[in-house]
Write a structure and sequence with these properties.
The chain has 354 residues and is mostly helical. The protein has two domains: 212 residues, no CATH class; 95 residues, secretion proteins EscU (name from scop, 3-Layer(aba) Sandwich), CATH 3.40.1690. It is 66% helix and 6% strand. Strand 1 and strand 2 form a beta hairpin. Helix 2 runs antiparallel to helix 7 and helix 6 packs antiparallel against helix 7. The longest helix has 42 residues. The radius of gyration is 42 Å and the shape is elongated. The two termini are 69 Å apart. The model has no long low-confidence stretch (mean pLDDT 80).
């Protein structure tokens, strides 16, 4: 057998290996997808709730500065004021923050479905091994991640530059505008830049997810020997299974032959087949096949029948029909009732004559 370490991993992963990988938390996932989804949802949330948030903040600041001269701030009141301010901001930002959190969870579920595994949290030496850390730093995967980050920064820079270069001419005229106009202009421009960057990130995220999926499938590939070994573990060694089946057949054969002395009659071919029948009207509505066999087993059935004075009757068509149509323990079919009844009647007459 070829050394498994020299075999190429050319085979697709089996369902068992995929399940084992998933149970360990190893699933295809792109962080870029999370970033893009969270950014877009956050921007959409700000689009709908931004004006409301700014309005409340503006009202708060106006109220504070209007009554600034009458507000008495004591050291004992600072914790209470901080707590109230925190509650106010939490309630104000809750819709947008909630949307962002749901987006993060949804992005993960979209990529890999529901996965819960404690395996990544288990402490292992490899996680703190400096040699392993250096190897990861200078691995091909790290190089790809570095190139992705550089490319992403370049794309974001280009998008930002293209969006802002036409707006630079407007900036000098903002001096004549009100504070509200300046804030609105900056907010609209920031939203425009962010949305364009987010759309570019969506394209990058789709490409990265496809790449991560490809790498995941490549990582899970197996050698032909690994597939054979897995088959042995799941289905059992073929030689062992064959031996077990052989033992089971032998035990079933012994149990079957042990029932031959209880039969009422054995119908034979005469040399190829033998079928032992028993009729118990209290428990069965029809005669039952208690044993059957071909060739050597047929000879053994007839031998046991003669030892225990069970009548042996030759009927070639009936023996072949019963052997083919009825399993051991089964009732004979309706279309054979007449032929079997005639033989049983003959057997019962012989017993009365003795």
């Amino acid at each position: 057998m070829a050394d498994e370490s020299f075999q190429e991993k050319t085979e697709q992963a089996t369902p068992r290996k995929r399940k084992e990988a998933r149970d360990k938390g190893n699933v295809p996932k792109s962080q870029e997808v999370n970033t893009a989804v969270v950014l877009i949802v956050g921007l959409v949330g700000l689009k709908f709730y931004g004006a409301k948030i700014l309005g409340h903040l503006s009202d708060l600041m106006t109220n504070v500065y209007t009554h600034l001269s009458t507000i008495e701030v004591e050291a004992a009141l600072i914790p209470e004021l901080a707590a109230n301010g925190g509650k106010f901001m939490a309630a104000l930002l809750a819709p947008v923050v909630g949307m962002i959190m749901l987006a993060g969870v949804g992005a993960n579920l979209l990529q890999s479905g529901w996965v819960f595994s404690s395996e990544p949290m288990k402490p292992t030496f490899n996680k703190i091994n400096p040699a392993k850390g250096l190897k990861k730093m200078f691995s091909g995967k790290s190089a790809v991640e570095l190139l992705k980050s550089v490319f992403k920064l370049l794309i974001i820079g280009v998008v930002g530059y293209v969006t802002l270069k036409d707006q630079v001419r407007i900036a000098p005229y903002l001096i004549e505008g009100t504070a509200g106009q300046i804030i609105s202009f900056i907010a609209a421009l920031g939203y425009k830049v962010s949305m364009r960057v987010a759309l570019v990130l969506v394209i990058l995220a789709a490409s990265d997810f496809a790449y991560q999926k490809f790498q995941y499938e490549k990582q899970l590939r197996m050698t032909k020997q690994e597939i054979k070994e897995e088959y042995k573990r799941t289905e059992g060694d073929p030689m062992v299974k064959s031996r077990i089946r052989s033992i089971q057949r032998e035990r079933a054969r012994k149990r079957m032959l042990a029932d031959v002395p209880t039969a009422d009659v054995v119908i034979t071919n005469p040399t190829h087949y033998a079928v032992a029948l028993k009729y118990d009207p209290e428990n069965h509505s029809a005669p039952v096949v208690v044993a059957k066999g071909a060739r050597l087993i047929a000879q053994k059935i007839k031998e046991i029948a003669r030892e225990h004075q069970v009548p042996v009757v030759e009927n070639k068509p009936l023996a072949r029909g019963l052997f083919a149509a009825v399993e051991v323990g089964g009732d004979i079919p309706y279309d054979m009732f007449k032929a079997v009844a005639e033989i049983l009647a003959y057997v019962y007459r012989l017993k009365k004559m003795k």
